[in-house]
Write a structure and sequence with these properties.
Length: 229
């Protein structure tokens, strides 16, 4: 990392990959790698949710999300240096009455908020420095011990841009450069808040095998080799 890049890329040392991704029987972790383009969203409706945490259209659980991506950036804009920003939402779909037509329609509501969030602080510089707004690595968390009502779960991710970076070269000058392709990784963990269930991991593995194309991540063990003198 070049000197000063911690302002734009974050800092810290992650856990070993085996510790970061290991799962207890009472939890499951999914890892997604994808790309986004301006004007497009990624949605996963009817997202699988453990049956043990579902009862009578109510869901309980403890949920963590981590989003990480290399943003397009320009230090010339000061605290607004990040020119691409990815939002991640995970929540339930409910029926809601349309105020104009009076008819019922489905609406998705995100339930897992950012861990660093305070909308009362309005200054961008404060939010960037203290609340990790527009940080390239952000964490979300929600504890739902008593359950929350909903029809089904939905995961959706969208890309926001500024300074017309999706239309120009970032300096206010139009060009014919290829469109922005923003890669990202999303890690989602769903757990039994009581830690009593021993089937969460197996339940999710069974659902994924039967309904979706997925594979277990192969973790390479760390091997230390000592050379004899």
């Amino acid at each position: 990392m070049e000197d000063g890049d911690d302002r734009y890329l974050g800092f810290g040392t992650p856990l070993n990959i085996d510790r970061a991704l290991e799962c207890e029987p009472w939890q499951t972790t999914l890892v997604f790698e994808e790309t986004l383009r301006p004007g497009y969203n990624l949605e996963w409706d009817s997202f699988p949710y453990p049956e043990s945490l579902t009862a009578e259209n109510k869901f309980r659980g403890e949920i963590w999300m981590t989003i990480a991506y290399p943003p397009k950036r320009n230090p010339a804009y000061g605290s607004e240096y990040c020119e691409t920003y990815i939002e991640a939402h995970f929540g339930v779909v409910r029926d809601k009455k349309d105020k104009k037509t009076g008819q019922m329609k489905e609406e998705a509501q995100g339930l897992v908020p950012l861990e660093h969030n305070n909308p009362g602080e309005l200054f961008e510089s404060f939010q960037v420095e203290k609340l990790r707004k527009r940080a390239p690595v952000r964490t979300y968390h929600r504890l739902i011990p008593q359950g929350i009502a909903g029809k089904r779960w939905k995961l959706w991710v969208n890309l926001l841009t500024r300074h017309d970076v999706d239309k120009t070269d970032g300096q206010g000058i139009g060009n014919s450069a290829p469109p922005i392709i923003q890669p990202f990784a999303l890690i989602l963990t769903i757990a039994d808040p009581s830690r009593n269930s021993k089937t969460i991991y197996d339940e999710m593995a069974r659902i994924l095998r039967s309904r979706f194309k997925s594979r277990n991540m192969q973790l390479r063990p760390t091997v230390q080799v000592r050379a004899r003198a």
